[in-house]
Here is the input.
Amino acid sequence: MEMRHFDAFAAVMSAGSVTAAGALLGRSQPAVTRLIQELEDSLGYALFERSGPRITPTARAFQLYQEVERSLIGLHRIRERALAIANDSQAPLSIAATPSLASGILSQALAQVQAGGLDLPPSLQVHTGSDEYVVESVLAQRFDIGLATLPLDHRGLEIHWIGEAPCVAVVHRDSPLAAQARIEWHDMAAHRLITLANAFRLRGRINAALNAACDGKGVKPAGLLETNTSVHAILAARAGLGIALVEPSTAYGAGIDGVVVRPLPVHIPFYFGAVTPYGKSSTPVATALLEALAQAASALQGFKRHEGRRHEALLQKFHGEVAPPPATLTIARPGGRG
Here is the structure.
């Protein structure tokens, strides 16, 4: 197995066909087919199911692609760094971030660094993914900087700062709720709640706060819509499907039209931070970007900055708010308005 085999495999997975992959690689369709067959022979299992000219990736192909994609990113970084050394130019800068933090503060921070007089490297790479993806990518040193939510503690990571900001509610701008100074818990009784699905991070704290507010008061959301990103939750609120309870980075930073952002009656903290590989030397641009990220985050209403060494204390508070097993959310019986 050689790198060209994995390049062909990744191109077919991305393009969806051998012909399109050949166009991406500058190779003929038969040449790509041969590379895929050689790779399958070496692996000892099929990567694609064939049905005439159509191919469909197997379950094993999807599993392998995750590893190949990560490796190709690393090789791309090596090539970029080698060229930078040869040309005596700035080293490439790569950032991994969750979608919420990338959309909410990363672009503003990059613009701030550039406005401050520092030249950004010719090669910038930004990849988004889950918190787990960000942590794993920075640990493996495939990326220089990571932006993710707590927990972030790992001996292979250096936490530069931790941010805290309150979660918010988002509603359609024409909703009667948009006229209120804040969204109260009893407002949930007539509307569907739109929020995130991962109970082990932010969602657990939202559940705990809502259940505490509902306890003994008869206040239950009329329904529930779960999604994996705050952007989807806000877009659902814009479509009039209910009230989105989300972190503030996307709510304030993504610039989604047609909605208004309102505070909640209690503080539900959103914890996040910036990390780099432990012990790795930092370039002037990377150092400036780490500070610029904190400055961009400070624009969030109610933002508090904590030192990275406070991670353990904040984590204890985090787990205190989300007692295992994670709380489930009680909703009203069908019949409430969505």
In short: The longest strand covers residues 157-166.
